Amino acid sequence: MDNDQIKLFAEKNIEIFYFWSGVLMWLIHAGFLAYEAGMTRQKNVLATMMKNFLTCAVVTPSFFLFGWWIYYACPQGLPVNSELALDALPWSSKMGPNLSDHITGVFWFAFLLFSFTTASIMSGAVIERIQMGSYLVLATILGSGVWVLAASWGWKDDGWLYQKWGFHDWGAGGCVHTVSAFFTLGVLFQLGPRIGKFNKDGAPQEIPPHNLPLTMMGLMLIFTGFYAFYAACAVFQTTGPWLSIYLTPMTLSSLAFTVTMGFSGGAMGAFLSSRGNPYWTISGGLAGMISIASGVDVYHPALGYLVGFTGGIIAVQFGNWMERKGLDDAVGAVAVHGGAGMWSMLAMGLFASGYPQHEKFTSLSGQLAGLVVMVLLGFLPGYLLSFLLKKCNLLRVSPEHEREGLDCSELGIQGVVPAATPVSSQPNR
């Protein structure tokens, strides 16, 4: 084989790897759809599922038109470096059926699936009372703008958070999970709780899910897709070692070990902290997978278990604290993704300070700087945008429609028909 043939063979292998990583990440979104459908009440099931489905439909074109460009244009903040991003413009020759380019499309596809995840994190927290249109606007801005800016700053070897602070967030515990969770928190402040969630003296009332087994099945799909999520974070080379997003050596073996151990630790931490609550236990598995995100490429598996275990406890306690403060996060998204995401960045600073990264070193101060940036970058746009939507009376459905259920009020159809009252088997007398 000559050099051109060897190069083409290498590119095809890279293309195959990222294509199938992206395909398997769709399981995350099938999981979010089932997970949230189980958590809502019957009168809102179809509207909740439609919201998740349409997330993918609205984020895809917006990410193609400007989200991909933001990632390449803004690593140093403002002003943008437009020259670096010429190939990411929607009319670029690389953004189409170019037979000589086996890389751009599959990278774009993998990042697009990350974008779906960011919006899906928000979607569960706001179920049962947000207007469909306002949700889709917020999902587009978060999925094709806010999180992409976070990735450009902190998830790139030329991003300013990495260049100036040595920020290390290999599995996007900050860039995806923390940013999305605090964007969601900003929305929740403006949206308010569901009718009946708190009584007159402010005490929280339980609004039970209509199908907890469906929720648990959805989370199992999310767990499965997360392995592909992490694999797609790796830089695949046909020769030489695998690389992190910061171009430091790593292996898929480290993912197999540490992601699984983090999941296990998170589930057990949440199980013990919640005293066996089924919902928090399985959500703790996700919190564990997120907790090891920032350092998954460097942790020993045993450390991954302990970090995940702590993350499961944090998620439960954070969720309970939010409820006591009058915030209604219907699925605990801010607690799981925000609590575990912040812990992910902090743990990397506590346990891996001094780790060498391609001319940079990790540090606790660098991780704390990244944590503050991710929290503010998420919260401020979420709060301000939802404030504007609220002022225009576009954020929340009317109390009448909320009581009726969003399936009928927004879609004009009842998604789940309640079972008929059983007929007595006793003979008439």
What would you say this structure looks like, in words?
The protein contains 14 helices and 4 strands. By secondary structure, the protein is mainly α. The protein has one domain: Ammonium transporter fold (Orthogonal Bundle). The strands form 2 sheets. Strands 1-2 form a two-stranded antiparallel sheet. The protein has a two-stranded antiparallel sheet with strand order 3-4. Helix 1 packs parallel to helix 3 (104-125) and helix 10 (301-324) crosses helix 11 (333-351). The longest helix has 37 residues, at 3-39. It is globular, with a radius of gyration of 22 Å. Residues 423-429 have low confidence and may be disordered.
List keywords for this structure.
429 residues; mainly alpha; Ammonium transporter fold; 64% helix
Largest sheet: 2 strands, antiparallel
Distance linking N and C termini: 91 Å
Portion of residues in beta strands equals under 5%
Query: Helix share of residues?
Result: 55-70%
Quantity of strands, as a count? 4
The H-and-E topology, N to C, reads as HHHHHHHEEHHHHEEHHH
* Name of the level-1 CATH class: Mainly Alpha
Q: Quickly give the CATH architecture.
A: Orthogonal Bundle
| Overall mean pLDDT | 91
How many H/I helical runs?
14
User: Which blocks of ≥5 consecutive residues have pLDDT under 50?
Assistant: 423-429
Q: Please, how many domains?
A: 1
Would you give the CATH topology?
Ammonium transporter fold
Structural classification: mainly alpha
Query: Would you identify the CATH H-level superfamily?
Result: Ammonium transporter AmtB like domains
Radius of gyration: 22 Å
Strand order, biggest sheet?
A: 1-2
Shape: globular
